[in-house]
Amino acid sequence: MLKSIATNLLEIAYDEQGDSAGWPVILLHGFPYDIHAYDEVTPRLTAKGARVITPYLRGYGPTRFLDSTTLRSGQQAALGADLLALLDVLQIERAVLGGYDWGGRAACIVAALYPSRARGLVSVNGYNIQNIAAAMRPSTPEKEYRLWYQYYFHGERGQAGLTENRFEFCRLLWSLWSPTWRFDDDTYARSAAAFDNPDFVDVVIHSYRHRYGLVDGDPQFDEMERRLSSTPSITVPTVTLEGDADGVTPQGGGQASLKQFTGRHENRVVPNAGHNLPQEAPEAFASAILDVNACAG
Fold first, then answer.
1. Which keywords appear in this protein's UniProt record, sorted alphabetically (predicted)?
2. What's the rounded Cα separation, in Å, for the pair 48 and 18?
3. Which of 4, 30, 97, 273 has the largest count of CB atoms under 10 Å?
């Protein structure tokens, strides 16, 4: 059931399924996707007693800013703060957190900085907290070319391109990032409706500029960004997942960051899965959530 609730900054739209007294799970989507990424994950969890909450991130779907003057920030701390605020207003003390891409980043941030709020974590592509201080350090050419869309967004041409061609642009990313996934027109259109949010472009552009230190963040998140600059370890029980056909972060691309998981941790490679892993391999994602919950006791 689609619901909404107000935090201090947003009216967050979210889907809720399962027993309201069940063990809580928050599932977070990435860019450029939406809550339908978890359509086949959710019933596998509710069948095991979970209360599953899947929010639209800021800039997506029906989620809206409450104040027209609020910076449409897509920085990592904003995503983490939104998740923390959602937990607070829903009066959820602890939840299993799961996500990928932007959503995985938000989940990692809350698990790292507020471990008492995370019963456990499932994160695709490992440790998703950005090291912004090192963002201008070049990587290998093989890794750099995969990030072409980020560099495109750094200029005004890229912002105009996303504004004018968001439907086609994001579909291209789906195809490049999940080369083995044969999604159909209806599947894409169902999620692409979320990109019609009036703040989508501003939030996306800010995200991809802030992470390279090209624009300032929202001052209200300065303290959280300062804490994240130390790349804090994650101590809660965690399963990390990586698809062996991921077109953004190829298998093994996040291995170096796995040392940041200092609690109970397992990394799993999912065959024939790309970047949108929960939608491409829902059984693997759901199993990871269930295992983390069981591990947390």
1. Hydrolase
2. 9
3. 97
Reading the block at residue 30, the tokens are: 């990435």
Between CA 162 and CA 147 the distance in angstroms is 15
Please list the residues that pair with 268 across neighbouring strands.
241
**Rounded-to-integer distance, Cα 293 and Cα 296, Å:** 5
pLDDT tens, position by position, 245-297 = 999 998 776 677 899 999 999 999 999 999 999 999 999 999 999 999 999 87
Q: How far is CA 161 from CA 67, 93, 148, 153, 180, in A?
A: 26, 42, 14, 9, 26
β-bridge mates for residue 242, sequence order:
269
The string of pLDDT tens digits covering residues 3-61 is 999 999 999 999 999 999 999 999 999 999 999 999 999 999 999 999 999 999 999 99
**Cα–Cα dist 297/121, whole Å:** 13
157: domain CATH number is 3.40.50.1820
Domain that holds residue 33: 2-296
**Residue 223 class from Cβ within 10 Å (0-12 exposed, 13-18 middle, 19+ buried)?**
exposed
